Amino acid sequence: MAISISSLILHCVWVIMGVLTVRVVVGESEVPKAKSRAFFVFGDSLVDNGNNNFLATTARADSPPYGIDYPTHRPTGRFSNGLNIPDLISQHIGSEATMPYLSPMLTGPKLFIGANFASAGVGILNDTGIQFVNIIRIWEQLANFKQYQERVSTMIGAEQTKKLVNQGLVLITLGGNDFVNNYYLVPYSYRSREFSLPAYVNYLLAEYQRILQRLYDLGARRVIVTGTGPLGCVPAELGLRSRDGQCAVELQRAAGMFNPQMVQMLDVLNSKIGNHVFIAANAQEMHMDFITNPQGYGFVSSKVACCGQGPYNGLGLCTLASNLCPNRDLYAFWDAFHPSEKANKLIVKQIMAGSNKYMYPMNLSTIMALDSTQN
Ligand SMILES: *[C@@H]1O[C@H](CO)[C@@H](O)[C@H](O)[C@H]1NC(C)=O
Ligand SMILES: *[C@@H]1O[C@H](CO)[C@@H](O)[C@H](O)[C@H]1NC(C)=O
């Protein structure tokens, strides 16, 4: 009797310990075996998914009709009628959309999905977008990335955090605002009196290199770097500067100088590091395909924005008082500056599977295949 009771107790202890052991093991393996790699997003309004909603700034997309085609049909802070580029990349890598870093709901295991640090209006330079007052400049976005890692460290430890970050995918989109909202913002801007265009491009790229080096030092190991789009062809610039619907020459010259030199800068950085950490996405080529041949991609127009007013619907903000097209999929541009969800899908298609003309030295499908064999 005594023996059977004690063996019963022993048995219970084993069962309890067994349960505990199983739970501990599950708890540990959950972290590194997250469903898919973490995703971290940095940059401007092309990739901001709501951080600016939490800031006192005019650079925001938190009122209708923004988000009209988003699953909730409500504005989120994305500068799109629906999904933006990071959302579509998240879908392709099989993960949930990242949350804005400033969202109070980004806590606990949601942090393992990654985070979006981007802020509409920012550029490479600290003085870009000063008219928007309160935006998260790129160096502050990087400081937030460091803080993110400290938060995750308290949950899973420094080593697992490093692994999460090293194995993560990073997207950074900068540069457009340094032209549109700085150098060319007003005639005789401070920067345009200080620098000729070629000298300004050099200056921007030297600073961009420092930013990317910092991203690497913070643990980023796969970074997609998008160049600028065709700055002179967006409805805002057509409305402001174009008489006959031709892309604005000076801004096209700027994009045409910046983009190829950015690829060279990434090459220098990669050879210094000794690895293909930085991948160039040629956003200009991706856009030019449907800008030069809108009908070929199912658009009725690549010049007129779906939402806006004035010539090309390119002047002012997109609001409830603006013209709004009934079918957003027929327009390459949603508002005066930002592609529609349909155009974003075409862009992400090239990011995933495009040739070297679009993705250099390789596309995201190749990166995914390469990285899955290494981990
Ligand atoms: C921008 O600000 C950051 C820190 O606030 C600084 O490290 C960086 O050097 C500045 N960039 C330029 C070009 O002055
Ligand atoms: C891009 O991805 C596709 C697969 O989707 C592949 O066949 C192709 O060779 C890749 N191109 C480059 C340049 O990596």
UniProtKB/TrEMBL annotation:
<dbReference type="InterPro" id="IPR036514">
    <property type="entry name" value="SGNH_hydro_sf"/>
</dbReference>
<dbReference type="InterPro" id="IPR035669">
    <property type="entry name" value="SGNH_plant_lipase-like"/>
</dbReference>
<dbReference type="GO" id="GO:0016788">
    <property type="term" value="F:hydrolase activity, acting on ester bonds"/>
</dbReference>
<feature type="signal peptide">
    <location>
        <begin position="1"/>
        <end position="27"/>
    </location>
</feature>
<comment type="similarity">
    <text>Belongs to the 'GDSL' lipolytic enzyme family.</text>
</comment>
<dbReference type="Pfam" id="PF00657">
    <property type="entry name" value="Lipase_GDSL"/>
</dbReference>
<keyword id="KW-0442">Lipid degradation</keyword>
<keyword id="KW-0378">Hydrolase</keyword>
<keyword id="KW-0443">Lipid metabolism</keyword>
<dbReference type="InterPro" id="IPR051058">
    <property type="entry name" value="GDSL_Est/Lipase"/>
</dbReference>
<keyword id="KW-0732">Signal</keyword>
<protein>
    <submittedName>
        <fullName>GDSL esterase/lipase</fullName>
    </submittedName>
</protein>
<dbReference type="GO" id="GO:0016042">
    <property type="term" value="P:lipid catabolic process"/>
</dbReference>
<dbReference type="InterPro" id="IPR001087">
    <property type="entry name" value="GDSL"/>
</dbReference>
